[in-house]
Amino acid sequence: MVYIVKENGTDFVKIGVAINIENRIVGLQIGNPRELELIKSYKGGYAIETLIHKKYKDLHVRGEWFIFDESMLSIDIDSLKDYNKKLLKYIKHGHSVKELADIFNKTPEFILIKLFELNNSINIESYLTDGEITRMKLAVFKKMYKNGSSIADINEKTGLDTNFLLLYKSNF
Description:
This protein is of the alpha+beta class. It contains eight helices and five strands, in the order E-E-H-E-H-E-E-H-H-H-H-H-H.
């Protein structure tokens, strides 16, 4: 089960996975001076947890902790799964990143980051031009760098040359 636990007196919530949520909350409570309260749970495991984490990445604080948003109480899990399926369907049918941005009403950078995240389940790069692959990796670089990741971590994740990354970071 995926759980959302709120830290009372704050806007912080933890989104995690547990077989026994009650036992998990007891374990979390030991290391937390504020009372923790289960506010929502969803059927599913790590894949659903990952989709929820990605949905709320802009509210991410640290680890599995996020800033609470009312929409967390009514997440449409099926629509989260469908979004990725639709994105994969369009990319497999030869749509460009620009076309995907228009179809999904998102920025090309957003689409590139989503494609990079999906790269674990399918070889996305085989569906992209060389320029799109580079822009995808640069979009991920910008996001990771702004979130405090080291150049070494970014190099490992994207495969971009370290010297290039050092030079590129000075341009934004």
